[in-house]
Structures are given as structure tokens and as C-alpha cells.
Amino acid sequence: MWALLPIALCLTSVCGELHSLRYYYTAMYSNNTLPTFSHVGMLDDVQITRYDSERPHNRPTQPWMGEALKPDEWESETVKLSERQKLYLANVKIAMRRSNINTGLNVFQYMSGCQLLEDGSVRGFRSYAFNGRDLLSFDMETLTWVASSPIARLTKEKWDRNGPENLYKKTYSESICVNWLRKYLHLQQEALDSTVKPKVTVRALGMVNSPGLRLACLVTGFYTRDVRVTWRHEGQDVPETTNTGIIPNHDSTFQITSYHDTSPPHSKDTYCCHVQHSSFPEGKTVVC
Length: 288
What we know:
Residues 1-16 form the signal peptide. This protein is α+β, with helices and mostly antiparallel strands. It has helices spanning 12-15, 71-98, 153-160, 163-191, and strands at 17-30, 33-43, 46-52, 59-60, 106-117, 122-130, 133-139, 144-147, 199-207, 210-222, 228-233, 236-238, 242-243, 247-248, 254-262, 271-276, 284-287. The chain folds into two domains: 17-193, MHC class I-like antigen recognition-like (Murine Class I Major Histocompatibility Complex, H2-DB, Chain A, domain 1); 199-287, Immunoglobulin-like (Sandwich), CATH 2.60.40. Strand 2 and strand 3 (46-52) form a beta hairpin.
């Protein structure tokens, strides 16, 4: 559910983000169902931790993340998140009351984290949202909160008066968080200290209301992230129709599917999917 959060972070292409560590907190309340809470940690595009009201234990979701904390530290984080669960479920009701909402599904969300940028600088961020709309965001330069909704003004005024706490939030976001980010990147790199070859599969798919075929080239399980997928027909390069973009797998590897639409007749046609990746000694593989 954290994908609902419309936090106004800049795009990678604009900011030059190299790596990021993000934590998403989501509390949901409805008159007809039990309230739920979840917390998810993300390293770049890979989920690394999870806690939720159905399984109330903070746990690693990558094998290498188990080494990040000692057993008693994982338990300590669980205790903290159980308190956060109570806090954010209470915040849902406060936001509902201030918004004059009595029914329906209501969602309160919080995101915090930090970024390493390509120029070597760092950036921290903290933002709140309610029912898909921004509530509050923290300005790291002025050490004040920006209210994006009238229901957040009282909270902004209260929090702005707590200078020492706001200074700590800046220090944590731009220093402590970045140290954790670097540690997690190191553990991830140790687990994937060499490139991993992709598995490449080509198959033909029927097309709705068309006699042609859509060829799909699935490239999955590769690391590092950089890959190039192209198509050839009878030895000549042909453009792809579309692709999924590079998508993270659950195990820190990646996948992409490239598509090429063809027209009949197909009987003597030979189409090949070319994959270039650093894990191949010759630099590429071909599947026809």
C-alpha cells in the first residue's frame, strides 16, 4: 500500500540518484475491518525488511540482510515497530477526525530515508500522507515542516517549536541513515560479488485481432543491472516493439522482457534475441 504515497521526491534522471534507502509505514483503518499496519524497508528497488500486523516481527527479506543486525537488535526493532503501529493507527483516527471522515477505508502513510547522489552529496527526506494526499514534509535546510493540507497545520506549528528534535531528524537523515545505506550496499555487494548470468527464453504469443505474432524475450536473474536486449531478423537488426523496463527480482537480481511484433507469413522467418551482459565472457548471448 505504500505505493499510494505521493511523496514529491525528484526523479533519478533529474537528481542523479545513485542509491537510496527508504522506509515506508502504512496504517489502514476501516469501520468494517480490523486496522492493519505495515513497515517496509527498501534498498534502491529491492525490499530488504518487513513488519506487518499479521506477522508482527521485523524480519529480513533478503538472505544477506540477516547479517545486518544481531538477533537481539532485530528484536529491539520489532519492539519499536510495535509502538509505531499503535502510534500510526491512532494517527489515522486523528486525520479522519480533522477531515470530518467517519466511514470508508482510510490510509495514513509515512516515508523516511536518504539518498546518495552521483555528485557525492547526500539527501534526507521525511513525508506524511493521508488518503493519497500529502500532509507534511520536512525541510532539511530550514529545519521546519511544510504543511500541504489544512489538517496538518496544528501539527506543523507544534513540531516547528521542537528545534532540537528537528536538528536530530536532519542529522539522522543525512548521516546515520547514509551510514546504514552504505553498510547495506556493502552486504549486498558481498552477496553478489560477481556477475550473475541471466536466463534467456524466447516464446511466441498470439495477438488479439491480428494474424501476426508477438515474440517475447524474457531475460531474468541477471546481476549487475546493466543489460542490452536487441532483436535480429535473418541477421539484420530490427527494432523492438516495446519492453517492460528493468525490474528487480526478489533475490536482488533483475529481469526485463523485450517484445517484437511480426507479420505473417512466419514459416521461414528466423528471429533472434541478442542479450549483452557483463556476465557473458563474449559479452552477449543469442537465442533464436
